[in-house]
Design a protein that fits this description.
By secondary structure, the protein is of the alpha+beta class. The protein contains 13 helices and ten strands. The chain has three domains: 118 residues, Butyryl-Coa Dehydrogenase, subunit A, domain 1; 122 residues, Butyryl-CoA Dehydrogenase, subunit A, domain 2, CATH 2.40.110; 149 residues, Up-down Bundle (Butyryl-CoA Dehydrogenase, subunit A, domain 3). Strands 1-4-5-8 form a four-stranded mixed beta sheet. A four-stranded antiparallel beta sheet has the order 2-3-7-6, with no helix packed on it. It has a two-stranded antiparallel sheet with strand order 9-10. α1 runs antiparallel to α3, α4 packs antiparallel against α10 and α11 packs antiparallel against α12. The structure holds flavin-adenine dinucleotide.
Length: 412
């Protein structure tokens, strides 16, 4: 590593080592795979059996990187707080799409580990941890075709989205029955084997209760999937619908019930938004690094463009945003680390700030590349598209701002 980033001097030695290892993986494995997958014409090619995606997954799984959120007592890498920020920033520096694909893959399993249920841990979490072939891949199905922002809004406001179109859960004997459809936006949707799935009781809506979160193995009868989504940006992150047709699950698979839904869902959204903040800190840093390097090489007016004062001003503003992103995303992950009640407003602040900053830094970087910035032969246009998607991903920045604002206003 050429120099220490702001905040890295304070890192414990094991986190500095982690940073170097993950950086190497991001540079040598993750980024080349993401760039190659981004250039494929269709999302079907991204998930095809001979796709480079699977090589990437196997390399990540072989290093145990799929287990970072699972506590060490169960055999996971057990990263949290600052360690998690370091891990995610480096992956994001490599490329946002595969960083997030890897991140969400563990969601259902780490949530299950948190229940402490020994039978479920033996049956699902341990095989996931021991997997070195990427045979277990998780996803987080929340949104539905007719309910996107409604999910985030309902958490923090007295907000009552209409019920139709929800994926539902109803009690049936000693278990539950699940029906409905999740949006084509579910990350890892087409290739996932298990889902941490958000549901509603048929007669409920929003904050009025009735929400639940279930661990669902996708080999159960009644589960099916849609085709992969074709989109601008983060093209290596495959996405697709999940359908549930009267899927029966045992009661113990329902980890969050209506009684604990508001807390449980807010805690999950806090984790997801904090992840986004750290990953897009890395994205901003990658755009800045590339722009700096390019500005030292590209000559106009007889000098490298970095010698022109206006270019220097742009570079400095980009540099400042990267440092602010790291400082905020690291502080928020540290603040909520181990908290009995994680504070969603900080995670919303970090997600909205870091993704907006990443988009601005990527846009400025593209500008400094001139015409080459628009060319698919250069890396910046991909980073720009990836950053643009982040303003909508995991809740639009507008809606997360409203959710965060509600929390601040309602604080005692
Ligand atoms: C790259 C990517 C990855 C994703 N991964 C997942 C995933 O893993 N799982 C999953 O379930 N979903 C996922 N999503 C879906 C994502 O969470 C939704 O796209 C997002 O929450 C917005 O919902 P929507 O697209 O339905 O837009 P809508 O909710 O229809 O919003 C449309 C517009 O209206 C605005 N708006 C809506 N409601 C309000 C309101 N009450 N007040 C003010 N403005 C409002 C929004 O800000 C937006 O500008 C992903 C999306 C992307 C882009």
């Amino acid at each position: 590593m050429e120099y220490l980033e702001l905040g890295d001097k304070e890192l414990a030695p094991e986190y500095r080592e982690l940073k170097e290892n993950v950086h190497r993986f991001a540079r040598d494995v993750l980024r080349p795979a993401a760039v190659a997958l981004d250039k494929l014409a269709s999302p079907e090619q991204v998930i095809a059996p001979d796709s480079r995606l699977w090589q990437f997954f196997k390399q990540a799984w072989a290093l145990g990187y799929h287990t970072v959120t699972i506590p060490a007592e169960y055999g996971g890498l057990g990263l949290h707080g600052v360690g998690m920020q370091v891990f995610l920033e480096e992956l994001g520096w490599g490329s946002a799409d595969l960083a997030l694909s890897l991140g969400v893959a563990s969601f259902p399993f780490s949530a299950l580990a948190m229940t402490g249920n020994p039978r479920l841990i033996d049956e699902y979490v341990t095989p996931f941890i021991q997997d070195r072939e990427a045979r277990h891949i998780g996803c987080w199905p929340v949104t539905e075709p007719s309910h996107g922002s409604d999910w985030a809004m309902a958490l923090s406001a007295d907000y009552d989205p209409a019920t139709p179109g929800r994926a539902t859960i109803r009690r049936d004997g000693d278990g539950y029955v699940i029906s409905g459809q999740k949006a084509p936006w579910v990350s890892n949707g087409t290739i996932s084997t298990h889902g941490l799935t958000y549901l509603m009781e048929p007669a409920s809506s929003g904050r009025q209760g009735g929400g639940a979160v279930a661990f669902i193995p996708f080999d159960l009868p009644g589960v099916s999937k849609g085709k992969p989504l074709n989109k601008l940006g983060q093209r290596a992150l495959n996405q697709g619908e999940i359908f549930f047709d009267n899927v029966r699950v045992p009661a113990e698979y329902v980890m969050i019930t209506p009684e604990t839904f508001e807390y449980g869902a807010a805690a999950t959204l806090t984790g997801a938004n904090s992840t986004m903040a750290a990953v897009f800190t890395g994205v901003a840093r990658s755009a800045f690094d590339l722009a700096l390097e390019y500005s030292r090489q590209r000559v106009q007016g007889g000098v490298p463009i970095c010698e022109h004062q206006l270019v220097q001003k742009h570079l400095f503003e980009m540099f400042t945003k990267v440092q602010a992103c790291r400082t905020l995303s690291r502080a928020v992950l540290a603040h909520n680390d181990g908290a009995a009640i994680p504070e969603l407003e900080y995670a919303c602040a970090a997600k909205t700030f870091c993704t907006q900053a990443a988009f601005e830094v990527a846009s400025d970087a593209l500008q400094l590349f001139g015409g080459n910035g628009l060319s698919r032969d250069y890396p910046i246009e991909k980073i720009f598209r990836d950053a643009r998607a982040s303003l909508i991903e995991d809740g639009t920045n507008d809606v997360l701002s409203l959710a965060g604002a509600r929390r601040i206003i309602d604080r005692a």
